[in-house]
Specification:
alpha/beta, eight-stranded mixed sheet, 33 strands, binds adenosine-5'-diphosphate, binds magnesium ion
């Protein structure tokens, strides 16, 4: 035997060669078609061209070496399996050419059906389809010519960029000539005429005849699918969904089966559970005598899947059996596309289905009950972003509000806003800060921009599986679909419902859970999940699957997590709420607001003090006010640690703005009034004016410059703690010094603070810790030294990000972040999610060196990153003791801390 010189790279896999774990290589669709094939399910034969072939093509603009031959070989096997040849004039094999990336991108890329038809094979197809029901389909000729015109239309549009409307107009013209509004009324002759019209359109736009050579059709279609990876709407969708841009798509070539061969044929989509609520049952849409694209596009109104039982009991039972099998196999909600050709069921697609946030929790809980997954896995399958969504408010409905229409609750939430009818208008109004509801008959991938800009989406056609529904669910955006009482007129920018006309700019409210549509703005109320967190819904007693599932999964997260979760709260009320949400302490109590309001006057006196006596008088007046603030918080947080940050921002923030003050003084002087007080204030403001206040006199620097300021705060904290403890509660204050960059700063503050604490606390048993923020890069880099003087570190990742990158947050976010995101310099703003490599490295160094110097050092984070899911995982990995975030993010942080523990520490129960 001749020795093989080079091992050829494998670019093509028959379905039997793949499996569900090869998504990276075969895309989700290809991997799952392979999995179903290997399960022995009825999948039409076919093969998958890998994402590697796509990447090679996109990099060079040419098919990689060997690809053409491998396709030829697999096509030959496919032809053999089917006993037909591609485009054979007598009995043609037809194929679909379908995109399919690692992550599902519904409707974003291209699919071409009926490849292999040409002027000759269309006749062969008609002959082979002979015996189709003449009544229902207009016969075999009609079917064949309809298939051919669909090929030219899809091929023209997706492969050759012929504007799709031209084909639609030609179709409309044909229907008008026939005096009908229904495609099905066009007979074989009409469709033959339409094919001619389509070919002319094709020629006009491409300068060439519609390709007759089947293999050329196939190759061009494959190229078009490769290229669709970089289509504008696909790029936009990936950015929105944070799908990496370099994965490429696979291409699936699948033998065609026909759902449009008569009433005993049809096509549908199904879910093994309700993707909106998670409820068990049979959910799906079916359309008799149609090709698959008709269902997904939401063009014709479908019937509920249950109807299939009546139409074709055998196929229905088989489908239900397959659905149960798939769910058991994937151990998750599956989303299925199928076609029935003359009573024979074919599976065309399955995937683990997208779902709403509520369904994610409910399904995870059910699968645990059914013994399919354990609690660790359940925790892994939900996330903080979903939980955050479930905490959104809902509509508060009383008799004033009667729905004007009811569609399908396709993606939950409560949205109100001005009606718009086009994507462009939605983008325009949203940019002006308006809430808008995008109203369409149905959406298509070109509406993506508008859907992103809108608060909610309302369509009059299409089911739970229409484009609008699927994409909105993916975005977590409220959507009502198929509200067919609404008559939408896009050109006139209005819709009519129940005799009322709603024009662009009118306000409507849509409920994506119930599918109800209201005119006007409906007020909102807290969600059930928030009521549960607040303690007003007891999961043991309410009959609410969602609340029970959330309770169960949250309890497991709490049991698993290693990170404690604290909250950022400055008032007793915030502290109390956060505690109900599960906070285990306060990680950041800012004291700034305690100097505002009617206390400004005291602060002015402090700043303007002419001598020590003046200043001390001002501080003495502030002391009891501060003490009362702290008492309230310590009482609320009885037994839990409370980190109080000494005053941080520059003092001029507490004074009137320079310009305004200067004008006031000038005017008063003009009038000859006594302005001595104002002049002194103005002089102080001038003196304190800074070019760059973020890097100026603030934080510990201020405490070292203004005698007695920190001392007053420390005394207020210690006295409040003693009072609260004497009253029988437990106060656990932690005093935090901001903006430290050198250990000497901290040592100076600490020496004074310890003296005061010792004096105040006496034998009360109160223990006060002293620690520091780590928010200046120098502090992170000298953490070993700083830890000698600190009992705890709290990472202030907002400032650490600002100073680490050299960004002034207020200036950069609007100025150039959009460009950095566009260029991919950031995947996400470093203020939203911690920059692991840079700022995160500072955190890591400080944590390690701090702990090395002082093993019992407590480590936490109190920047906004403390409530960001991605960042929580990072802080878990670094080994911090806690994260602290705003009260509403506390449940999110608890959940993500639990998930982080399960993911990095491994499962404890499998
Ligand atoms: P998408 O990724 O947008 O869902 P698909 O590749 O699944 O696109 O194709 C769109 C529709 O075309 C599917 O709903 C399916 O019903 C239909 N279809 C695809 N391939 C075939 C085939 N081989 N036979 C019959 N119908 C097909
Ligand atoms: Mg599909
Ligand atoms: Mg700071």
């Amino acid at each position: 035997m001749a020795k093989q010189e080079t091992v050829e790279h494998k670019y093509v896999y028959a379905f039997a060669e793949g499996n569900k774990d090869l998504k990276e290589l075969l895309g989700g669709k290809g991997a799952n078609l392979a999995e179903m094939t290997n399960l022995g399910l009825p999948v039409p034969p076919g093969f998958t061209i890998t994402t590697e072939a796509c990447k090679a093509y996109l990099a060079t603009g040419e098919e990689p070496d060997g690809l053409a031959d491998q396709i030829a070989a697999h096509l030959a096997s496919l032809e053999q399996a089917m006993g037909k040849r591609l485009g054979d004039p007598e009995d043609p094999l037809l194929v679909s050419v379908r995109s399919g990336a690692k992550f599902s991108m519904p409707g974003m890329m291209e699919t071409v059906l009926n490849v292999g038809l040409n002027d000759h094979s269309v006749q062969g197809l008609a002959r082979q389809a002979g015996g189709v029901d003449q009544e229902a389909t207009g016969g075999a000729d009609r079917f064949a010519w309809d298939s051919y015109r669909r090929l030219i239309q899809m091929f023209g549009k997706t492969v050759c960029e012929v504007p799709g409307e031209e084909f639609e107009h030609a179709l409309d013209d044909a229907k008008r000539a026939k005096g009908t509004g229904n495609d099905l009324d066009l007979d074989a002759d009409d469709l033959r005429g339409l094919v001619d019209a389509y070919k002319k359109i094709f020629f006009k736009h491409t300068g060439r005849e519609f390709p007759q050579e089947p293999r050329e059709q196939l190759d061009l279609a494959i190229r078009a699918v490769f290229e669709s990876w970089n289509a504008e709407r696909a790029v936009l969708y990936r950015r929105q969904e944070r799908i990496p841009a370099d994965l490429g798509t696979a291409v699936n070539v699948v033998a065609m089966v026909f759902g449009n061969l008569g009433p005993d044929s049809g096509t549908g989509v199904a879910f093994t559970r309700d993707p909106a609520s998670g409820a068990q049952g049979i959910y799906g849409d079916y359309l008799a005598n149609a090709q698959g694209e008709d269902v997904v596009a939401g063009i014709r109104n479908t019937v509920p899947l249950q109807e299939l039982e009546r139409l074709d009991k055998k196929s229905y039972d088989e489908l239900l059996g397959i659905m149960a099998r798939l769910e058991g196999h994937y151990k998750d909600l599956c989303d299925i596309e199928f076609t029935i050709e003359r009573g024979k069921l074919w599976m065309l697609q399955t995937r683990v289905g997208k779902r709403t946030a509520a369904a994610a929790f409910v399904i995870a809980g059910q699968l645990v009950d059914e013994g399919l997954i354990d609690l660790d896995e359940a925790l892994h399958r939900v996330n903080g972003a979903q939980l955050a969504q479930l905490m959104f408010p809902r509509f508060r409905l009383d008799h004033e509000f009667q729905p004007v229409a009811k569609g399908i609750g396709a993606s939950p939430g409560a949205a109100s806003g001005k009606v718009v009818f086009t994507s462009a208008r939605a983008v325009e109004l949203a940019a002006e800060g308006e809430s808008v509801i995008l109203v369409r008959r149905e959406t298509n991938p070109d509406d993506l921009n508008g859907m992103i800009a809108a608060q909610g989406i309302l369509t009059s056609r299409g089911g739970k599986t229409s484009h609008a529904a699927v994409v909105a669910r993916g975005m977590g955006k409220t959507c009502v679909s198929g509200a067919d009482e609404i008559d939408v007129n896009v050109p006139q920018r209005r819709f009519v419902v129940g005799g009322q006309t709603v024009v662009e700019g009118d306000i409507v409210s849509i409920d994506g859970t119930t599918g109800k549509v209201y005119l006007g703005e409906v007020p909102v109320m807290p969600s059930e999940v928030v009521q549960y967190f607040e303690g007003s819904l007891d999961p043991a007693h309410v009959d609410n699957a969602l609340v029970r599932a959330v309770h169960r999964i949250m309890s497991h997260a709490d049991a698993r997590r290693r990170l404690a979760v604290r909250t950022n709260a400055d008032t007793g009320a915030d502290a109390a709420r956060a505690r109900r949400f599960g906070a285990e302490g306060i990680g950041l109590c800012r004291t700034e607001h305690m100097f505002l309001g009617d206390r400004r006057e005291l602060v002015e006196r402090l700043i303007l003090a002419r001598d020590n006596a003046d200043r001390e008088a001002a501080l003495a007046a502030l002391l009891p006010l501060q003490r009362a603030d702290f008492e309230e918080i310590f009482r609320e947080m009885d037994g839990m640690p409370v980190t109080v940050r000494l005053i941080d921002p520059p003092l001029h923030e507490f004074l009137p703005p320079l310009e305004q003050l200067a004008v006031n003084v000038a005017v008063a002087q003009e009038r000859g009034e006594d302005v001595a007080q104002e002049e002194a204030l103005l002089a102080a403001v001038r003196r304190m004016h800074e070019e760059n206040p973020m890097l100026g006199l603030r934080g510990v620097r201020l405490g070292l410059v203004i005698p007695g300021l920190f001392a007053m705060q420390v005394r207020a904290i210690a006295e409040a703690a003693v009072t609260v403890t004497r009253s029988g509660a437990v106060a656990r204050p932690e005093i935090m010094v901001p903006l430290v960059g050198a250990v000497q700063e901290l040592e100076t503050v600490r020496a004074e603070a310890e003296k005061i604490i010792a004096e105040v606390v006496g034998d009360s048993g109160v223990e006060v810790l002293i620690g520091t923020m780590i928010e200046v890069p120098r502090a992170a880099l000298t953490a070993g030294q700083i830890a000698e003087a600190a009992q705890f570190f709290s990472f202030g990742t907002n400032d650490l990000t600002q100073m680490g990158w050299g960004f002034s947050r207020d200036d950069v976010e609007g100025a150039f972040f959009w460009r950095y995101l566009e260029l991919g310099i950031f995947g996400i703003s470093p203020f939203e999610s911690i920059d692991r490599d840079g700022v995160g490295r500072l955190v890591r160094i400080a944590a390690e060196e701090g702990r090395a110097a002082r093993p019992e050092l407590k480590l936490g984070v109190c920047g906004e990153h403390g409530g960001d899911p991605e960042s929580v995982h990072f802080f878990h990995e670094v080994g911090l003791d806690y994260v602290s975030c705003s009260p509403f993010r506390v449940p999110v942080a608890r959940l993500e801390a639990g998930r982080a523990a399960v993911e990095t520490d491994g499962s404890d129960s499998r």
